[in-house]
Specification:
The chain is an alpha/beta fold. 29% of the residues lie in helices and 17% in strands. The chain folds into 3 domains: 5-176, Dimethylsulfoxide Reductase, domain 2; 182-370, 3-Layer(aba) Sandwich (Rossmann fold); 414-525, Beta Barrel (Barwin-like endoglucanases), CATH 2.40.40. It starts with 12 loop residues before the first strand and ends with a strand.
C-alpha cells in the first residue's frame, strides 16, 4: 500500500475494484464502512454483489476480466471532461500524452458495452473520483489474477496519477495483501528477480554487494523461474526437486491436474508446514514448522509495517521455527555464516536492505515501523511518494483492453470466477480444523443466478458437474441474485471440490500470474 490503513477512515472517495474487502480484509472493510458513515463516497466494481456493494454510492457489476476496460472508460471520461490535475501531471509525471493517445479509439460507450454496465455509471464514478485529492483505490487479486493483470495495475496507477491522488495523505494506490507476511517475503527477496530490498539480480553492483556481504562468489546474474514456469519445467523433467514452505499448491494452484502431474515427476519433494496439507501428503520429506505464536521474529503487513511477533508457547513435538530449519540446512550444506537468534537476522536485514536500514528490535518493540526506514533516526513512512516518486517522475503507461485468454462459447457457455469467504482462510489447512467455522460453511458450492439456474434446470441444494477444458468437479448449487447471469462463482478453499481443477494456467506476459479469475465452464445436472 502506498498509504496507511488508518487513513481509510479519512478518505473522501473510496474506489474498491477486484477486492471483496469486508470478507477478505475485514478490518480494512470495517474501516471503509465507517468512512462511508462519516460521509465518504464509495465506488465498488465487482462481478458479484459483494457485501460492500450494499454500502456503495456507485456499484459497477462488471464482467469478469474487464477491469482494464472499466478503468479506460473512467480515464477517457476524465480526459474528455478535463477533470485531470494539470499541475500534478506537469510537475510530477511523464508520458501523459502517450497514455492518453493510446485511448484515441477508445470510447466510454465501448467500455460500458464490454463491461456490461451503464455508460453513465462509469462517467459518474470517474467524476466522483476525479473531484477529490483524498481518493483511495483499493484492489486485490481480482485485479492481478488475469492475463491482463499487469495492465490493470498500470491503469490503476494511471488513474491515481492523472487526478493527483497519490503522494498525498488519505489517498493512494493500495493493493491489499492476501496473506500474513507476504509483503515481508517479497521485501526480503522471495521473488525470482531481486535480492532483499528489491535490488535486482541483474544489477552487477547489487550482485557484488551481496557476494561481499555473504562471503560467497559467483551469484547468478540470471532471473529465477516464476512458480508456473517451475511447474512446467518439473513436468518436462528439467527440475528434479522442489521445496514448498508454508504453501499448499495442491489446492491453490491453477489447473491442478497439470500441477499434480508435474510434482509426481519430481525425484524429491520437501514440504515445510504446520499441518499435513494436501501437498505435504505427497512429500518425500515433511519438516514440521512452528506456528506464528510458537516463535520469535517479525512480520511485515500490507501497509509496509514491520512488527514483532513473540513466542507465546512451545511448538509441539519436533516442530521448529522456520528460520531455525533453514539455518540448520545451510550449516549442513556447508554454509557457516549462521545465526543464533532472529534478532541477529534482523540486524543483517537492516545492514543490506536500505528500506529496512533503520529497523531493529528495540525500535519495533512496542509499535512497528513502516518502511522505508532509512536510518535509526528515521520515523518511518506512513505514505509513499510525498515529494517525488522512487524513479523520479511518475511514468504513465499506455494500456489497451484485450480479452481474457478464455471466453464463453457454445461448448462452455458460462464464465467462472473464484474468490475467498469470510469464514475460511486460503486452503483451510488451519480454518478447516475449526468445528464452528465448518458449521457455518463446511463444504464448497457454486453460486448461480436464478436465470442461469432456470436455463440449466438446476435448483438450490442440487449437485451439478462443473467442467472446463482442464477438468471437472461435482458441487452443490447455491442460487443467488448476487451474481450476474451467465457468470458463476466458486470459492477456492475446498479440496473436496477444488475449483482449481477448472481454472486456467494462461499467464500474464509480464508477471507470469495465472488467469485464476476467468475460465469458461459448463454445468450439468447430476442424477
Amino acid at each position: 500500500m502506498t498509504n496507511s490503513i488508518k487513513e481509510v477512515i479519512h478518505n473522501e472517495v473510496i474506489f474498491v475494484i477486484g477486492s471483496n474487502t469486508t470478507e477478505n480484509h475485514p478490518v480494512i472493510g470495517a474501516l471503509m464502512r465507517r468512512a462511508v458513515k462519516q460521509g465518504a463516497r464509495l465506488i465498488v466494481a465487482d462481478p458479484r454483489r459483494i457485501p460492500l456493494a450494499r454500502d456503495a454510492h456507485i456499484y459497477l457489476p462488471i464482467q469478469p476480466g474487464t477491469n482494464v476496460a472499466l478503468l479506460n472508460g473512467m480515464i477517457k471520461t476524465i480526459i474528455e471532461e478535463k477533470l485531470y490535475n494539470e499541475d500534478f501531471i506537469r510537475e510530477r509525471t511523464t508520458d501523459f500524452n502517450a497514455m492518453a493517445g493510446a485511448l484515441k479509439d477508445c470510447s466510454v460507450a465501448r467500455s460500458a458495452e464490454i463491461c456490461q454496465v451503464p455508460e453513465e455509471d462509469i462517467r459518474k464514478a470517474a467524476r466522483m473520483y476525479a473531484a477529490t485529492r483524498r481518493g483511495g483505490i483499493y484492489y486485490a487479486m481480482g485485479i492481478t489474477q488475469h492475463t491482463s493483470g499487469t495492465d490493470g495495475v498500470y491503469n490503476v496507477a494511471n488513474l491515481a496519477m492523472m487526478t493527483g491522488n497519490v503522494g498525498v495523505e488519505f489517498a493512494g494506490v493500495n493493493p491489499l495483501r492476501g496473506q500474513s507476511n507476504v509483503q515481508g517475503s517479497c521485501d526480503l527477496g522471495g521473488l525470482p528477480d531481486v535480492y532483499p530490498g528489491y535490488q535486482k539480480v541483474t544489477d552487477e553492483k547489487a550482485r557484488r554487494k551481496f557476494e561481499d556481504f555473504w562471503g560467497v562468489e559467483g551469484l547468478s546474474p540470471d532471473l529465477g523461474l516464476t512458480l508456473p514456469k517451475m511447474v512446467d519445467q518439473a513436468l518436462e523433467g528439467k527440475i528434479k526437486m522442489i521445496y514448498v514452505m508454508g504453501e499448499n499448491p495442491m489446492v491453490s494452484d491453477p489447473d491442478l491436474n497439470h500441477f499434480e502431474a508435474a510434482i509426481d515427476e519430481l525425484d524429491f519433494l520437501v514440504v515445510q508446514d504446520i499441518f499435513m496439507t494436501e501437498t505435504a501428503l505427497k512429500a518425500d520429506v515433511v519438516l514440521p514448522a512452528a506456528a506464528f505464536a510458537e516463535k520469535d521474529g517479525s512480520f511485515t503487513n500490507t501497509e509496509r509495517r514491520v512488527q514483532r511477533i513473540r513466542k507465546a508457547l512451545d511448538p509441539p513435538g519436533q516442530a521448529k521455527a522456520d528460520w531455525w530449519i533453514l539455518n540448520e540446512l545451510m550449516k549442513r550444506m556447508g554454509y557457516h555464516n549462521a545465526f543464533e537468534t532472529p534478532e541477529e537476522i534482523m540486524e543483517e536485514i537492516a545492514a543490506c536492505t536500505p528500506i529496512y536500514g533503520g529497523i531493529d528490535y528495540p525500535r519495533i518493540d512496542k509499535k512497528g515501523l513502516q518502511w522505508p526506514v532509512k536510518d535509526k533516526d528515521h520515523p518511518g513512512t506512513p505514505f509513499l511518494h510525498k515529494e517525488r516518486f522512487s524513479r523520479g517522475l511518475g511514468l504513465f503507461k499506455p494500456v489497451v483492453y484485450r480479452e481474457s485468454a478464455e471466453m464463453a462459447d457454445e461448448e462452455y457457455p458460462l464464465i467462472l470466477t473464484t474468490g475467498r469467504l469470510l469464514y475460511h482462510y486460503h486452503t483451510r489447512s488451519m480454518t478447516g480444523r475449526v468445528p464452528g467455522l465448518n458449521e457455518v460453511v463446511g463444504e464448497s458450492y457454486i453460486e448461480i443466478s436464478p436465470d442461469t439456474a432456470s436455463r440449466f434446470g438446476v435448483g438450490a441444494g442440487e449437485r451439478v458437474k462443473v467442467s472446463s477444458r482442464r477438468g471437472e468437479i461435482e458441487i452443490k448449487v447455491k442460487v443467488t441474485r448476487n451474481i450476474k447471469e451467465d457468470v458463476v462463482f466458486i470459492p477456492f478453499h475446498f479440496a473436496d471440490a477444488a475449483v482449481n481443477r477448472l481454472t486456467n494456467v494462461a499467464l500474464d506476459p509480464i508477471a507470469d500470474i495465472p488467469e485464476l479469475k476467468v475460465a469458461a465452464v459448463r454445468i450439468e445436472k447430476m442424477a
